Amino acid sequence: MGIVNGLLLVILGALCVPALVAQKSPKAKALLDKIVPFQGIFGFIMFIWGIWVVIQCILNISWFAWQFPWGLIYWITILVDALLSLFGGAILGWGLIQQNILAKASDTVKAKAEESFAKIVALQPKIGIAAIIFGLWVIISSIIFL
Q: Please, which pLDDT band fits residue 24 given cuts at 50, 70 and 90?
């Protein structure tokens, strides 16, 4: 965890929030469609990073004992950071998956994938706002815990 991780979380959140703008402006949607491949790559990287950090949190649950209650706050901060990275990355990475993997799939698989994505994409603005706010907390807590 650190300042860089907090900045990455803020960027992830900023990439999730433009979905709110795209619903209101067709011009913004056209611009966002141009950056979908980059969102997908960044989202996929953040998804993998989120998985890695969740595993590390589970393996290092002993951080609770480190100067209680600060160790608990530190551990929860890392876990929430990892979960936001995981879910935000999955949402942003979905466009890349859809373009490259689902293009070759059957129509029934595409229909089920679209149905699942419609449910998940509803969370995108909430995850984006939470990621921005929590990314700022990660930066601040990194300075405090140093």
A: low
